[in-house]
Amino acid sequence: EAGVAQSPRYKIIEKRQSVAFWCNPISGHATLYWYQQILGQGPKLLIQFQNNGVVDDSQLPKDRFSAERLKGVDSTLKIQPAKLEDSAVYLCASSFHGDLRETQYFGPGTRLLVL
Amino acid sequence: GESVGLHLPTLSVQEGDNSIINCAYSNSASDYFIWYKQESGKGPQFIIDIRSNMDKRQGQRVTVLLNKTVKHLSLQIAATQPGDSAVYFCAEGGSYIPTFGRGTSLIVHP
């Protein structure tokens, strides 16, 4: 079974530029999560999708971050404009039903450096 | 606010020893906990989970203990191997938003 795919793996941009990350979850998984992991910290949930609907985006900085999952499969996370403090690893995860007591499967992450 | 945290940032052990990684949580309503392993350059990988109606759960070479009285859980790794070197996170999955702790770096010396 293929795992969660993410691209690109690495991205370096200057502050105030825009960037987008892509995630393809495990086939058949209804729930998709985007996390931000700052160096030395645990992942922090940004947004959770159930199929193509948003379940929770309370921790998403909506003035600059946006995410979509239009067809309920793959998803894109965008930052516009980027700030220095956005430097982090952006992790995508998926789970079958979305029960928070269910195992989440993580992708390898996209490492973003904002200069 | 509620938080899930770890006691020690780094744990160094010799190959073959047993490792114990600790985690404290503050939300007494938490009813589900997960341990993840994150190797360098990879996403977190599920190791073992435990529900609050259990005190102990065992997997292959790993055991998780939950003490609800003091809101503490631990991950025990038996016969630690160099491949166990990674950052270990405890996470609370019972609340609406999955919450991860800071992480403990486990270093295994051959």
Helix fraction bin of chain A: under 10%
Shape of chain B: globular
Number of strands of chain A: 11
Biggest beta sheet attributes of chain A: 7 strands, mixed
The assigned structural class of chain A equals mainly beta
Topology:
The complex is a heterodimer of chains A (115) and B (110).
Chain A: E1 5-7, E2 10-13, E3 19-24, E4 31-37, E5 44-50, E6 53-56, E7 65-68, E8 75-79, E9 88-95, E10 105-106, E11 110-114
Parallel strand pairs in A: 2-11
Antiparallel strand pairs in A: 1-3, 3-8, 4-5, 4-9, 5-6, 7-8, 9-10, 9-11
Chain B: E1 4-6, E2 10-14, E3 19-25, E4 32-38, E5 45-51, E6 56-58, E7 62-67, E8 72-77, E9 86-92, E10 99-100, E11 104-109
Parallel strand pairs in B: 2-11
Antiparallel strand pairs in B: 1-3, 3-8, 4-5, 4-9, 6-7, 7-8, 9-10, 9-11
Account of the 3D structure:
The complex is a heterodimer of chains A (115) and B (110). Chain A contains no helices and 11 strands. In chain A, the strands form 2 sheets. In chain A, strands 2, 4, 5, 6, 9, 10 and 11 form a 7-stranded mixed sheet that branches. A 4-stranded antiparallel sheet of chain A has the order 1-3-8-7, with no helix packed on it. The model of chain A has no long low-confidence stretch (mean pLDDT 94). Chain B is 0% helix and 54% strand. In chain B, strands 2, 4, 5, 9, 10 and 11 form a 6-stranded mixed sheet that branches. A 5-stranded antiparallel sheet of chain B has the order 1-3-8-7-6, with no helix packed on it. The interface between A and B is medium-sized, with 23 and 24 residues.
